[in-house]
Amino acid sequence: MGPTRIWTAVAAVAVAACAPTIKVQAPDKPIEINLNVNIRQEVIVKLEREVLETLRQNPSIF
Question: Could you say which DSSP state residue 25 is in?
Fold first, then answer.
């Protein structure tokens, strides 16, 4: 075995030792997605439409 082969083997071992490892693991807690803002906006729009319709039907309320 010549010195070139020895250095090639050493370089291969060094590169293999530096290879990154990837670990895939499920989270301990469930993922929580907060959608309160969208739901609140939808409720406000629906209530506003209902109020406008009530005012149109009964203009003497106020």
Answer: -
